[in-house]
Specification:
The structure holds two protein chains of two kinds.
Chain A lengths: L1 H39 L4 H9 L2 H17 L2
Helix pairs in contact in A: 1-2, 1-3
Chain B lengths: L6 E9 L3 H11 L3 E3 L8 E2 L6 H17 L4 H14 L1 H14 L4 H44 L13 E8 L4 H8 L3 E9 L2 E9 L3 H10 L3 E2 L3 H9 L8 H52 L5 E2 L3 E9 H14 L5 E5 L21 H7 L10 H16 L2 H17 L3 H24 L7 E2 L2 E2 L10 H57 L7 H24 L3 H7 L3 H25 L3 H38 L20
Antiparallel strand pairs in B: 1-9, 1-10, 2-9, 3-8, 4-6, 4-7, 5-6, 8-9, 11-12
Helix pairs in contact in B: 1-10, 2-5, 2-9, 3-4, 5-9, 12-14, 12-18, 12-19, 13-14, 15-16, 15-17, 15-18, 18-19
Classes of the chains: A mainly alpha, B alpha+beta.
């Protein structure tokens, strides 16, 4: 039972960790491009911000999955 | 409230002789957003008014005087404004000044500027000369000081026939070794330590010059240029020998005199600046307006004898402006209201209630609405602080942020900052409300043994919290779809609006029905599949293939509101950790433990509040821009900038 719970916890951790990495990689590229665009045209701040935070959704989904996985633990 | 101000497109046509009067009326009224005329074979672009050249020359003169006199108009205006608040007497002074100087007429202004430029140039020229004089005297004094330290007199350094002298600085010199090296060739060697630098004076026979230079090169010798003193001396040799000390004293006097002159010059320069700065600023302002007027015809159309101006005017002012223009031109203008086409870029002036107005800030940041769609400021006013509060959701943190942003709003007066702080104050108020809803105070759910009442406990009812967050998402996204429905209804008719927007709502209903069938076995699945099928077909009609590809996005958008729970949990989690860490130190009270405990509490909560402002702000904004706006907003509007209101 302890092993089972441990695996569940590990899986939940993976769900968060992997999605965070994915979001980070995506945001890195978008953020760089957004800053570059803003250097040329400052009005693009709003759009740059929105585009940069779009991949955050990945982590949110990861979190939801993680919570669902933890719900399986006894 | 929900739509930008209605505009009317005006065409103004008149004889060229009416042009200056018409322009100055328009400039004074500050209502016409000019549409630049495009050159075509029939109607060319207009020429600037006659005085444009003169005015731009004067403007250039004033601006160059700004830079010479080191005047920053913005700073001085701000100073004057704050002074006005403090003392009415200074205001009176200022008014006197204005009355004396303001608007002297172009001719007088030109004369004034010529005189001022002349005196500024004279003063600056004198300043430059004096500065050079001071520097060179200073240099000479330094050299003489070295001579003095080397115990040389002026007649020691010139007038020789067979002896050469080397006076200057050396590096890393071992004087004993050096004197041994040079003992064979040197007549005399003097050495001194002049404020950390080593100075030497070496006298040798002319024929050993080569060798001396070699030795000197090894110790990095740099010679001083003393030719000035040498010639001086040789000229006056016949008269009397000037003593070094006397020369130094004379030079010092010279320097002092120059310095006095310099500071006197500086003072009169400052006086000149104080005397003229307001005059210059006022006239720069006046001339900027004049140049805008003089160059306005460049945006107008023009034929040999007529001019043609088009632009937008707010509907409620059209009649009044037309009347005034006609009155000034003896009814000789032809003014016509034109039809606004659907695809025209009509300038946008938002009109919102005072409490909603700060939220227009987010539209400036993103993109103004176009003329034909709903102005979402009111929905931002409802949605943004609500979602922010849901994420921060702590009564204690709410109090801190409220106090913080209230103070900042008092301190920082810039317009954009004011708007931002007003928004954040609203957000703090919602945080207080949600603090009560979640029963949290700095992450604590009980205070001194008393359980704070709550509706939902974020720490213990995570799944319920997730459900509430997603439910908020459903409401918010569908609100967006309904606004989108309204926008489409206005321009593409009921059928298209229904296909493009209501299909998304049907899609959600279909999925919910399927959940009832497969998750709860309440109804047969046929209802769910039917609704889904209809919604997909409608969506294809409404938005084409693109709509079908985007199908899953609606669920992604709704699930995205799970961040409301996620950020809330993170905020509570960190607060609880901080409290527990501090509590361990308070268990065994000693002076050190209590101090460390308090430090942990303060630092921990400060960090958490900083994160709790940054995270919820960005995420709430993102939910507005990405999840909400994409359902109805196209944006791309240009701001309404009436002619004459560029500079306030």
């Amino acid at each position: 039972m302890a092993l089972e719970n441990g695996l569940i916890a590990l899986a939940a951790g993976l769900a968060i960790g992997a999605t965070s990495l994915a979001a980070a990689i995506a945001e890195k590229d978008i953020g760089t491009a957004a800053i570059g665009a803003m250097a040329e045209k400052e009005e693009l701040f709003g759009k740059g911000l929105v585009l940069t935070v779009i991949p955050e959704t990945l982590v949110i989904f990861g979190l939801v999955i993680a919570i669902m996985i933890i719900g399986m633990a006894k | 409230m929900f739509a930008p101000k209605k505009m009317e497109k005006l065409l103004i046509l008149g004889e060229k002789s009416l042009l200056p009067a018409t322009i100055s009326t328009l400039h004074r009224q500050k209502v016409l957003h000019i549409i630049e005329h495009r050159k075509n074979p029939d109607v060319d672009i207009g020429q600037p008014l006659e005085n444009a050249q003169k005015i731009s020359e004067l403007l250039l003169k004033i601006r160059s005087l700004f830079s010479y006199l080191n005047i920053n108009p913005q700073i001085i205006q701000e100073q004057l404004q704050t002074k006005e608040h403090q003392k009415t007497t200074t205001l009176k002074n200022k008014q006197n000044l204005q009355a004396k100087h303001l608007k002297p007429g172009i001719k007088q202004l030109e004369k004034d500027l010529t005189i001022l430029t002349f005196s500024v140039n004279t003063l600056l020229g004198a300043q430059k000369q004096l500065d050079a004089k001071i520097k060179s005297t200073d240099e000479q004094l330094k050299q003489l000081a070295v001579l003095k330290d080397l115990k040389l007199e002026l007649d020691d350094i010139s007038g020789y026939e067979s002896i050469l002298h080397y006076i200057g600085f050396v590096q890393n010199l071992d004087i004993l070794k050096f004197s041994l090296h040079t003992s064979k060739i040197s007549h005399e060697l003097k050495y001194a330590d002049v404020s950390g630098k080593q100075a030497i004076a070496l006298f040798v026979e002319k024929n050993s010059a080569q060798k001396t230079l070699e030795i000197l090169a090894k110790v990095h010798f740099t010679a001083m240029d003393l030719s000035k003193f040498a010639t001086q001396k040789s000229k006056e040799k016949s008269k009397s020998n000037i003593k070094l000390q006397a020369l130094i004293a004379a030079l010092q006097n010279e320097k002092k005199a120059a310095e006095n002159k310099f500071s006197a010059n500086k003072k009169s320069f400052e006086r000149l600046k104080r005397q003229w700065q307001i005059y210059l600023i006022e006239n720069e302002f006046f001339l900027s307006a004049e140049i805008a007027k003089a160059e306005a015809p460049l945006k107008f159309g023009s034929t040999d004898n007529t001019f043609l101006a088009t632009g937008y005017v707010p509907r409620d002012r059209t009649a009044q402006v037309t009347e005034i223009l006609q009155k000034k031109a003896d009814n000789k203008l032809f003014i016509q209201e034109q039809h606004i086409h659907h695809d025209e870029h009509v300038p946008i002036q938002l009109q919102n209630k005072k409490i909603v107005r700060p939220f227009q800030f987010f539209l400036d940041l993103y993109s103004l609405p176009n003329y034909h769609e709903v102005d979402p400021s009111f929905f931002l006013f409802l949605g943004f602080p609500f979602l922010f509060g849901f994420m921060l959701g702590d009564f204690g943190y709410g109090l801190v942020t409220l106090a913080l942003f209230y103070l900042l709003k008092k301190k920082i007066k810039a317009e954009a900052a004011q708007q931002l702080f007003k928004i954040l104050i609203w957000a703090s108020l919602w945080s207080l409300a949600f603090g009560l809803f979640f029963g949290e105070f700095f992450g604590l759910e009980e205070l001194a043994g008393f359980n704070i009442p709550h509706v939902i406990s974020r720490e213990h009812q995570k799944i319920l919290l997730l459900g509430v967050a997603v439910a908020i998402g459903v409401v918010h996204v569908n609100l967006g779809l309904l606004i989108g429905f309204y926008n489409e209804l206005q321009h593409h008719g009921l059928w298209h609006a229904f296909c493009a927007k209501i299909s998304w709502i049907l899609l959600q209903i279909g999925s919910a029905l399927l959940y009832l069938s497969y998750g709860m076995y309440l109804i047969p699945p046929i209802f769910g599949f039917l609704t889904l099928g209809i919604s997909v077909v409608l969506l294809y009609f409404g938005e084409g293939i693109r709509g079908l590809v985007e199908l899953p996005s609606i669920f992604g958008n709704i699930m995205s509101y799970a961040r409301l729970m996620a950020l809330g949990l993170a905020s509570v989690g960190l607060a609880v950790v901080v409290n527990e860490m501090a509590a361990e130190f308070f268990h065994e009270p000693s002076v050190l433990n209590v101090i460390v405990g308090i430090l942990i509490l303060v630092i921990g909560h400060v960090i958490n509040i900083a994160l709790g402002i940054l995270g919820p702000f960005l995420h709430s904004l993102r939910l507005q821009y990405v999840e909400f706006f994409t359902k109805f907003y196209s944006g791309g509007g240009i701001a309404y900038r009436p002619f004459g209101a560029e500079k306030e």
